[in-house]
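The methods section describes the discrete structure representation at length, but only in general terms. What matters is that the chain and its backbone geometry are given together, residue for residue. For illustration, here is how one protein appears when written out as sequence plus structure tokens:
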Amino acid sequence: MSADQKSVGELLAATVPMARTLNLEFLETTAERAVVRMPDQPDYHNHVGGPHAGAMFTLAESASGAIVLAAFGDQLSRAVPLAVRAEIGYKKLAMGVVTATATLGRPAEEVVAELDAGGRPEFPVTVAITRDADDAVTGEMTVVWTLRPNS
């Protein structure tokens, strides 16, 4: 599978209905970084007029999934990526358009080497959520992923 920007975004939009529902825009998807933007949509606002916490969670988790697909898409024939756990912290009020930027917490080569050795590697992906208006960090998320070997 090619893990270029367009194919990863299209794949996620096709296979993850929430990404499509929230109109997420996949701006950059490489093995080093994924950047995903969520437009300001009143239907997904909370009680103070910003994006709902659940929408921000989905935005950040989608960015983490995009980088996982970009980094490990060539492993899909032998392992399936699965989120193991996630933690999010809401730091500041998010208003308007927000963007999530994800980075791998372990070198991809190290993760693949563990898979090659017969393991089921786990690795963190960190995500910063920022307000587009002023680049203020409004949230931070860590998603721990695994590559579960196919039986």
Notes: The two ends are 20 Å apart (CA to CA). Confidence is low (pLDDT under 50) at residues 1-5. The domain at 5-149 is CATH 3.10.129.10 (Thiol Ester Dehydrase; Chain A).
